[in-house]
Specification:
By secondary structure, this protein is an alpha+beta fold. The chain has four domains: about 100 residues, no CATH class; about 90 residues, Beta-Lactamase, CATH 3.30.450; about 80 residues; about 150 residues, Heat Shock Protein 90 (2-Layer Sandwich), CATH 3.30.565.10. The longest helix is centred in the middle third of the chain and has 45 residues. It is elongated and about 175 Å long.
């Protein structure tokens, strides 16, 4: 403000001096005066105009220099205030104040940048950022360690690690993820890769996070094997134990008959023969059950590759409801279906997804069948809608007794079942089918309130 006032005062004084000199010069021309006087006054006017132009030009140059310093982030220059009492002292002081503020902002920005770089370098997850040309801007220590590299400037240099890895890094879009195995120092490493695309000053670049999940996968795999072995052991023992027991009983009875001194075939009574027959029949039936169990287990590993086609969801669900109409009516169940939009489509193998939907709807019906004491209105809700730009959901919801928390953790384990009758492979089979469709199946349940199964399909 002081600079503005000084500048105005100086400008007004100089203009007034020029104006006064002009008046004097005009009067000299109208009055008789010496030529030398006229020349001196004219020279004075010229000098005053020159000084005014120089004054304004100097101010403009100082402003231009100051603005260039801001433009090119050059805050090393300072302006000397000589305390001459002129307006330039105020101007220089304001320039210095602004430059000082910019220096403080830059120092704070650099400190923040260094702080963030330190965090990025020390975080345990690998981080890589690169532009459209693949030029790397940031690669932290964790990423270098995971990939076994030191100094690289472009992602294409990772070809030496894995060509598949380079393809994944360049092709992944925002929200995309990939699982990949690489060999590092003779050891196999399982990587989980996540990507997001960002903009910085009109330049596109990609942020990639990389994590070694081998130990987590091994732990989950061990848990899965333990759960599977526990279920297999339970089922096999249920079949083998009575077979072994009955076989031992029959063997003992026959041995006692054969070793008798007075053994004669005609001495074996009809009741004994009936007992032997019943025991052998039971052994036969349990053996068949065990063979079927092993056959079902083998079928879980033989799901064919899906033959994908565009299918209207309504064309999938309505025939299934017609197929199960008798069971639905017998159990007095109301089915409500909602598809938004009505012509919503998924890309899937029709037969395989029909099998999944039949499993889920039959599970809901059977839950009502086995819990007649519910004493409340029975309802199954089928909802299908677009969840986001990337996925479509189909939900099967019932208001049955629900599934307890412990059983909920095991529902997708092969041969685990909470039903009185059932093989326990339906949900496990459904899980595998959805994975082959690059989708997922999840379950939520609350005891005495109901269960919700959600099928997620990619768009």
């Amino acid at each position: 403000m002081a600079y503005n006032n000084n500048f105005k005062v100086n400008l007004i004084i100089r203009v007034l001096l020029i104006l006064g000199t002009c008046i004097v010069l005009v009067n000299l021309f109208y009055e008789e005066s010496y030529l030398l006087t006229k020349i001196l006054v004219g020279g004075l006017l010229t000098y005053e105009i020159y000084v005014l132009i120089r004054y304004l030009d100097k101010t403009n140059k100082e402003l231009a220099g100051f603005l260039n310093s801001i433009k090119y982030d050059d805050f090393t220059h300072t302006y000397t205030t000589r305390k001459t009492g002129t307006s330039m002292d105020g101007l220089y002081q304001q320039f210095n104040n602004v430059i000082k503020k910019f220096r403080e902002i830059r120092a704070e920005k650099e400190a923040q940048h260094q702080y963030l770089r330190t965090i990025v370098q020390h975080v345990g997850i690998g981080i890589i950022t690169f532009n459209k040309n693949g030029d790397i801007q940031i690669i932290n220590s964790a990423a270098k360690s995971l990939l076994g590299v030191d100094l690289i400037k472009n992602v294409k240099q990772l070809d030496a690690v894995s060509e598949e890895l380079v393809n994944s890094l360049t092709e992944l879009k925002t929200g995309g993820r990939d699982l990949m195995k690489i060999v590092r120092k003779g050891e196999e490493v399982q990587l989980a890769i996540y990507a997001i695309e960002l903009m910085r000053r009109d330049e596109e670049f990609k942020l990639i996070s990389i994590q070694n999940i081998k130990s987590e996968l091994e732990e989950k795999e061990m848990d899965a094997w333990q759960n599977l072995i526990r279920v297999l052991t339970h089922e096999i023992m249920n079949s083998v134990t009575p077979i072994s027991s009955l076989a031992a009983t029959v063997e003992s009875e026959l041995e006692s008959q054969i070793r008798a001194d007075d053994f004669k075939i005609e001495n074996i009574s009809k009741d004994d023969l009936e007992d032997f027959h019943m025991a052998l029949h039971t052994i036969h039936k349990r053996s068949e059950g065990l063979i079927k169990f092993v056959s079902d287990f083998r079928n879980l590993t033989r799901i064919p590759i899906p033959q994908l086609e565009d299918i209207l969801i309504c064309d999938l669900i309505r025939p299934i409801l017609n197929l199960l109409r008798f069971d639905i009516e017998q159990n007095d169940i109301q089915v409500n279906m909602s598809i938004e939009p009505e012509q919503l489509m998924i890309r899937a193998d029709k037969e395989q997804i029909e099998q999944v939907l039949i499993n889920l709807i039959k599970n809901a019906i059977q839950a009502f069948e086995e819990n007649e004491e519910l004493g409340k209105h029975k309802e199954i809700i089928i909802n299908a809608r677009v969840e986001s730009d990337e996925k479509i959901s189909v939900k099967i919801i019932d208001n049955g007794t629900g599934i307890d928390e412990e059983a909920l953790k095991k529902v997708f384990i092969p041969f685990f079942t909470t039903k009185k009758s059932g093989s326990g492979i339906g949900l496990s089979l459904s899980k595998q089918i959805m994975r082959k469709h690059n989708g997922n199946i999840s379950v939520q349940s609350t005891v005495n309130e109901g269960t919700e199964f959600a099928l997620i399909f990619p768009r």
